[in-house]
Each structure stands twice: as C-alpha cells, then as structure tokens.
Amino acid sequence: MTLATSLFSPVEADLRLLSENLVQLVGTRHPILSLAAEHLFGAGGKRLRPAIVLLVSRATMLGEKITPRHRRLAEITEMIHTASLVHDDVVDESEMRRGVPTVHSLFGNGVAVLAGDFLFAQSSWYLANLDNLEVVKLLSEVIMNFAAGEIQQGVTRFDTAITLEDYLQRVIARLLL
Q1: What is the pLDDT of residues 102-143, one digit of tens each?
Q2: What does pTM read for this prediction?
Q3: Is residue 113 one of the residues assigned to a domain?
C-alpha cells in the first residue's frame, strides 16, 4: 500500500464513482470527444486533486454524507486538470503519458486542442451550475494562471539565464493545477 493509497482510503469509493461519472459528464453528443474522453479518463491517474476535494469535503461535513455538489466539484477539478494535460501534451509534443498514447498522438493536434477546450468549457459550465461565485472565480484564476505559465514556459524554454527560484516557482505552480 502506497502513502497515497492509505491517505485516500476514506474516499476510495468516492473516487471509483468519480471515475465512472467523468466520461458521462462529457456526454455522447460528439462521438470523437466521447472517444477522447474515454481514452483520457480510462487511462487512470493518481486522481490527487479530486481526492483532496473529497477528503476536505468529508472532513468538513462532520460525520454527514458528502453532497452531490461536493462530488461535482471533485469531478470538475479532475476535468480541468485533464484538460490542462491534453493541452500540455500538444505543446510539448508528447506521444505518451503514463505509458498510454496521448490524445493528440491518437487523434491529431486539432482534435486534442478542441478536446482540451471542450473539457475546460464543460467544467466551467458545471462549475457555474454550482452557483458559488467564489469557487468560479478561484478556478477561473487557476485556469488563467495555467495558460500564462505555459506561455511563459514556452518563451523561456531555452533560456539558460533563468534563475532556480523562477524555475521552482513554475514547478510548484504547475503542481497545484
């Protein structure tokens, strides 16, 4: 048992339900997006961000069950993170992630960018439906910071004058997304 596994054991069942719900959230209106979503969410991953949302939800509910709104926020968090990975793989021209072909290597850059955009848009729509303006503002800021960070990373890609402090700030910011 890994540390993450033991830490997340209180929300293990919630995380299984989350994995099942993610593909359904994307929907079936767009077959290529459905295929991309199944590929993305079927690849697994650590689910660190939604696990934290669920753990905090459980901790603050004081023995009561977490609500569908808590679950939706965890799903939204994973959708935003996944969208950022899809875009990141396009920018970095990565063929594999976690031993699985990336969306752009399977479907092309155009579909990958649009799939990432769709996940951002879909997560924003679900987020707006939670009717919590503070959470909308916070996650919108996270998405803006991600985009700005990716642009900055691209601009300084081969800059050997970058300081260690600047580099570490970018790494930490990326980990938080």
Answers
A1: 999 999 999 999 989 989 989 999 999 999 999 889 888 888
A2: 0.82
A3: yes
- d(Cα 92, Cα 103) in Å, to the nearest integer? 13
CATH number at residue 116: 1.10.600.10
Nearest to 23 by CA among 8, 9, 44: 44
Q: What is the Cα 125 distance to its own chain's centre?
A: 15
Q: Is residue 172 part of a domain?
A: no
d(CA 119, CA 85): 11
Q: Is the per-residue pLDDT at 73 higher than 60?
A: yes
Q: Is residue 116 helix, strand or coil?
A: helix
Question: Which residue's entry shows tokens 């926020």?
Answer: 73
How many residues does this entry show for the chain?
Answer: 177
> Are 29 and 72 contacting, i.e. CB atoms less than 8 angstroms apart?
no
